[in-house]
C-alpha cells in the first residue's frame, strides 16, 4: 500500500516476547549475578563465541536472552537473541553492546548452529537474529578483497519467502550470466538441513528448469551440469568435488533439485569450519573459474534471459484524486518520496534500472496512472525504513518507519518519484507481458505485493523540451544546507568552470549527499528532469555508466545490442530536448559514494573528457563522443570508508575537492528553530569528535546529521548512540576494540544518564 493514501489494515503485529516492567529486568540481572554467574555454565559466558551481544548496566555485562527469559518466563529458544531482543531491551531504556565482530567462518557456524531451531521456533517476519546473520554474511563477502577484481558479481542472500526455507543460501551472480537465482550458472553457499555443514558450489538455477522440464527437471539439470563440468576440471586440483554428488540432508523436492544442479562443490563441516582466510581462498579459486566460464561459455549451455525493461504495478485506488497534489510537490521540490508497505523482490532488483515506471492499479484490471521512479530503497525483510529523502517526504512520514505495527503500515519501500501522469485513457493490465519468474497472472494484481511486468513504454528515460524556470537564490541554498554562502559560492564557481566536476568528501553523517542534491537543484533551477542520481558500488560497471553490449532475446535466440549507460543516456536526452551545450540550462549527474567503485574502470574515457571538454574521444561502440559543456558532475566520497588521498591521482586532479566536516554550528542552528533538544547536545557532539580526531584522524569522526531529529530527548539520543553512532565507532576501531571502552553515551551527554 502506498504513502498513506490507501486505508491501512487494522491488524497489528504481535510481539514474540511478552511485556515486562523494567524493574523485572533489573531483578533478573540480580538473579543472574547471585545464582547463575557462579555456575560453570555461565561463569565464562562472555568468552562463548556464540554470544554476540551483551546487556550493559552499571558497568556490568549480562547475556540479553537469558535476562529476558528470567524476566518474562519465556524460554530462550522461543525468541531471537539478535535484533528482537535488542529492540525489546532498548524499549526499556537499557543499553545493549556488541561483544565481538563477525567473520565469515563465525557467521557460517552461527547459521549452522541456530538456523534449524529458529526455523521451528520463531516467526519468519521481523528483525530477528537469522536476518542479522545472513545480512552480515552477505556484507562480509561484498566488502572482501576477494570480490575486488569481480565488478560484475552481485551477492544475494535468502532464508525463505514468507516462511523459513529448509535450505537457505547465499549466492554470487555474475550479471553477464544471470541476474536471478532461478536461471543460469552461479556460485552459491547452500546450508544443509539440520545444520551439519555448508556447501560452496558452482551450480545452476533450478526454477526455470522446473518450469520447462517438469518431472524431468532433475535429469535435465544433471545433463547440463555434465556439459559445463568439462570446462571446470581445474577445480579438482583445489579440492573441489566434480562428481556432481552432494547431500543436503533433505527430502524436499527443491533440495533434491539443488543437488542435481551441482557442477562442482566443496563441503565445510560445522565442527571443522575452515578459517575465514581459507574460505575466501576457495571462493577466489571458484570465482576465477566462474569468470572464465562466463567469458568462454558454450552457446549450448548459455541461458536465455529476457532483457526487456521491467516495470512495477502497485495498488493505489485514489491516484486520480491525489495526482495533482503529487504533481505540485514534484514541481516545487524536484521530486516526491512515496512509501509502500511491501518490498521489491531481491531477484528483481538487479533488473530494475532507474529510471523505471510504476503503474498505479485502481481496480477492475485498470491502471490509472504512471509514475517514474528515479531512485528507490527497499527493506531486506519486514523491518521499516526511514525515508532516504526527508526533504521530499510529507512531514507526517519524516523520521519514522511506520504508521502502525500492522504489516500494511510499515514503510518497506521508498520511491523518489520525479514524474506522474494520469493515464487518459487508462491502460489495462492485460496489455502487459508478465515477467514469469517474478509474477503470475494470479498475483500480478495484489494489494500486498508489487506486480512485475515488461514495460510497454520505450521512452521512460526521455524528456520533453526543458521549460525555463526562475533562478534560485544563494540564500535559499545556504538555508537548505546550513553551509556559508561563501563556501557554497566556491563550489558553484568550480562547477561553472571549463572542468565542472567536484567531489564532496567527508566522514559519515556530514550531509554530503544532501548538499550534492541541493547544489544540483540550485544549478538546474529546480528542474528534476535535468538531474540524474546514481550510487556507485563495487559491482558497478562501465557498461552501466557509459555504454556496453547487452544480450537481448529475439525470436528464441540471443543477440547483443549496444545499450547506452547513464551518461550517454543523459546526453542523448539533452540533445532531444534542445539543451545540448545550452548555457542557460545546466544538467547535473550526482554520483553518490563514488569511492566504492573501481573508478578508473567505471569512468573509462571520461578520465580524458573531464579534463578536455572541448575535445571528443572515440568510444568503442558509439564512435566520437564529446561531453556537453553544461553537463556537471557532483560526486560524494566517504573518507571514513576510503581516504580521498588513496584515490587515483589522475582522477583527483580532474575534480575540485571540497571537504565537509562535522559542523556544530549547523547542529546548533537546527535546534534554534524551536525544536526541543537535550541539554548539552552540541557540546557533547564537539567533545565526541575531538576525542575521535585525537585517537584517529579527522576522517574518522561523526557527522552532525546523525543528531538532527524533529525532537531530541534522552531516549532518542540513546537509540541514535546504540544503533547508529556506537556501531560506527566500533567499525573505526575494528582492529583495536579495547579503545571503544573509552566511548560511552554518558561520557559525552551526562543528561542522558538514566534515560
UniProtKB/TrEMBL annotation:
Family annotation (Pfam families): AAA_5, MrcB_N
Organism per entry: Paraburkholderia acidiphila
Molecular function as annotated in GO: ATP binding; ATP hydrolysis activity
Name of the featured protein: DUF3578 domain-containing protein
Domain AAA+ ATPase: 498-663
InterPro entries: AAA+_ATPase, ATPase_dyneun-rel_AAA, McrB_DNA-bd, Methyl-DNA_Rec/Restrict_Enz, P-loop_NTPase
Amino acid at each position: 500500500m502506498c504513502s498513506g493514501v490507501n486505508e491501512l489494515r487494522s491488524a497489528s503485529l504481535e510481539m514474540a516476547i511478552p511485556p515486562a516492567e523494567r524493574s523485572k529486568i533489573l531483578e533478573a540481572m540480580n538473579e543472574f549475578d547471585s545464582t547463575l554467574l557462579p555456575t560453570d555454565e555461565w561463569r565464562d559466558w562472555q568468552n562463548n563465541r556464540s554470544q554476540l551481544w551483551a546487556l550493559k548496566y552499571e558497568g556490568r555485562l549480562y547475556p540479553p536472552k537469558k535476562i529476558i527469559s528470567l524476566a518474562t518466563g519465556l524460554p530462550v529458544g522461543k525468541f531471537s537473541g539478535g535484533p528482537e531482543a535488542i529492540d525489546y531491551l532498548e524499549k526499556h531504556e537499557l543499553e545493549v553492546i556488541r561483544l565481538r565482530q563477525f567473520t565469515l567462518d563465525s557467521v557460517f557456524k552461527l547459521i549452522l548452529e541456530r538456523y534449524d531451531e529458529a526455523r521451528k521456533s520463531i516467526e519468519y517476519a521481523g528483525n530477528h537474529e537469522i536476518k542479522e546473520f545472513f545480512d552480515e554474511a552477505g556484507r562480509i563477502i561484498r566488502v572482501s578483497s576477494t570480490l575486488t577484481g569481480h565488478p560484475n558479481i552481485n551477492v544475494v542472500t535468502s532464508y525463505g519467502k514468507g516462511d523459513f526455507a529448509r535450505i537457505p543460501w547465499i549466492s554470487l551472480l555474475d550479471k553477464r550470466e544471470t541476474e536471478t537465482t532461478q536461471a543460469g550458472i552461479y556460485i552459491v553457499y547452500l546450508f544443509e538441513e539440520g545444520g551439519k555443514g555448508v556447501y560452496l558450489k558452482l551450480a545452476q538455477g533450478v526454477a526455470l528448469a522446473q518450469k520447462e522440464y517438469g518431472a524431468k527437471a532433475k535429469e535435465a539439470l544433471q545433463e547440463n551440469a555434465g556439459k559445463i563440468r568439462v570446462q571446470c576440471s581445474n577445480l579438482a586440483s583445489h579440492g573441489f568435488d566434480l562428481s556432481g554428488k552432494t547431500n543436503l540432508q533433505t527430502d524436499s523436492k527443491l533440495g533434491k533439485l539443488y543437488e542435481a544442479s551441482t557442477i562442482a562443490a566443496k563441503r565445510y563441516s560445522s565442527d571443522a569450519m575452515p578459517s575465514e582466510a581459507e574460505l575466501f581462498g576457495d571462493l577466489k579459486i571458484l570465482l576465477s573459474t566462474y569468470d572464465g566460464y562466463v567469458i568462454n561459455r558454450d552457446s549450448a549451455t548459455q541461458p536465455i534471459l529476457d532483457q526487456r525493461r521491467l516495470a512495477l504495478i502497485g495498488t493505489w485506488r485514489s491516484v486520480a484524486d491525489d495526482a495533482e497534489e503529487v504533481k505540485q510537490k514534484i514541481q516545487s521540490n524536484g521530486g516526491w518520496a512515496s512509501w509502500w508497505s511491501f518490498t521489491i523482490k531481491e531477484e528483481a532488483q538487479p533488473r530494475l534500472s532507474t529510471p523505471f515506471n510504476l503503474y498505479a492499479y485502481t481496480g477492475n484490471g485498470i491502471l490509472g496512472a504512471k509514475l517514474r521512479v528515479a531512485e528507490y530503497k527497499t527493506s531486506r525483510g519486514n523491518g521499516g525504513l526511514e525515508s532516504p529523502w526527508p526533504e521530499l517526504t510529507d512531514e507526517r512520514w519524516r523520521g519514522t518507519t511506520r504508521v502502525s505495527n500492522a504489516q500494511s503500515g510499515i514503510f518497506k519501500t521508498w520511491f523518489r518519484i520525479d514524474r506522474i501522469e494520469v493515464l487518459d485513457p487508462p491502460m489495462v493490465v492485460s496489455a502487459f507481458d508478465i515477467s514469469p519468474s517474478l509474477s503470475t497472472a494470479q498475483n500480478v494484481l495484489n494489494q500486498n505485493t508489487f506486480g512485475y511486468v515488461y514495460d510497454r513504454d520505450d521512452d521512460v528515460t526521455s524528456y520533453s523540451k526543458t521549460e525555463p524556470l526562475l533562478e534560485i537564490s544563494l540564500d535559499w541554498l545556504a538555508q537548505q544546507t546550513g553551509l556559508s554562502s561563501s563556501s557554497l559560492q566556491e563550489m558553484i564557481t568550480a562547477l561553472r568552470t571549463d572542468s565542472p566536476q567536484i567531489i564532496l568528501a567527508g566522514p559519515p553523517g556530514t550531509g554530503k549527499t544532501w548538499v550534492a542534491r541541493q547544489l544540483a537543484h540550485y544549478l538546474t533551477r529546480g528542474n528534476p528532469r535535468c538531474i540524474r542520481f546514481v550510487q556507485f558500488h563495487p559491482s558497478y560497471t562501465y557498461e552501466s555508466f557509459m555504454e556496453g553490449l547487452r544480450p537481448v532475446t529475439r525470436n528464441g535466440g540471443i543477440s547483443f545490442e549496444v545499450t547506452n549507460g547513464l551518461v550517454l543516456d543523459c546526453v542523448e536526452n539533452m540533445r532531444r530536448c534542445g539543451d545540448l551545450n545550452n548555457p542557460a540550462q545546466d544538467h547535473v549527474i550526482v554520483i553518490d559514494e563514488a569511492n566504492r567503485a573501481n573508478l578508473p574502470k567505471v569512468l573509462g574515457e571520461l578520465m580524458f573528457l573531464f579534463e578536455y571538454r572541448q575535445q571528443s574521444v572515440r568510444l568503442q561502440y558509439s564512435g566520437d563522443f564529446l561531453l556537453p559543456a553544461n553537463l556537471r558532475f557532483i560526486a560524494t566520497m566517504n573518507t571514513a570508508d576510503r581516504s580521498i588521498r588513496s584515490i587515483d591521482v589522475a582522477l583527483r586532479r580532474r575534480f575540485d575537492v571540497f571537504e565537509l566536516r562535522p559542523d556544530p554550528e549547523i547542529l546548533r542552528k537546527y535546534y534554534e528553530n524551536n525544536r526541543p533538544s537535550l541539554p548539552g547536545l552540541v557540546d557533547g557532539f564537539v567533545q565526541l569528535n575531538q576525542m575521535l580526531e585525537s585517537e584517529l584522524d579527522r576522517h574518522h569522526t561523526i557527522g552532525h546529521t546523525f543528531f538532527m531529529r524533529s525532537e531530541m530527548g534522552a531516549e532518542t539520543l540513546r537509540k541514535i548512540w546504540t544503533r547508529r553512532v556506537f556501531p560506527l565507532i566500533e567499525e573505526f576501531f575494528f582492529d583495536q576494540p579495547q579503545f571503544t571502552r573509552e566511548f560511552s553515551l554518558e561520557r559525552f551527554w551526562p543528561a542522558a544518564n538514566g534515560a
